[in-house]
Amino acid sequence: MYRRLERGQGNVLAYEIGASVTEEEAREILGQLREAIGEHGRIRLLVRMEGWPENATAAFTERLRFAKDHLGDIDRYAVVGDHQLLESLTEAADKVVGMELRHFDPAEEEAAWAWVGES
């Protein structure tokens, strides 16, 4: 399950990701991101996650293709969640990707919104 958060506006897209995301849902999200990149050029993301998704490999090949094609089109990526693995992976990925990537605890969500929206 995922839900696009209405608070995201313009080139800022925001999602809440539940405990389970299907391949179809993962493809829908990637399609929305592609549309936003086509419209705005560069985008920013905020993803709120509850735990660690059961099917974290959903549409894995599609996600890899998206990353290869669009990694440079994402300026900032805020991940909000309290799962320890999520924090560790975010910190590791930040060191190797060409975007600003930051983890925030759920209590820091307002700070995440502020950071994603900064100029």
UniProtKB/TrEMBL annotation:
Record Gene3D superfamilies: SpoIIaa-like domains
InterPro entries: SpoIIAA-like, SpoIIAA-like_sf, STAS_dom_sf
Protein name according to UniProt: STAS/SEC14 domain-containing protein
Source species: Nocardiopsis exhalans
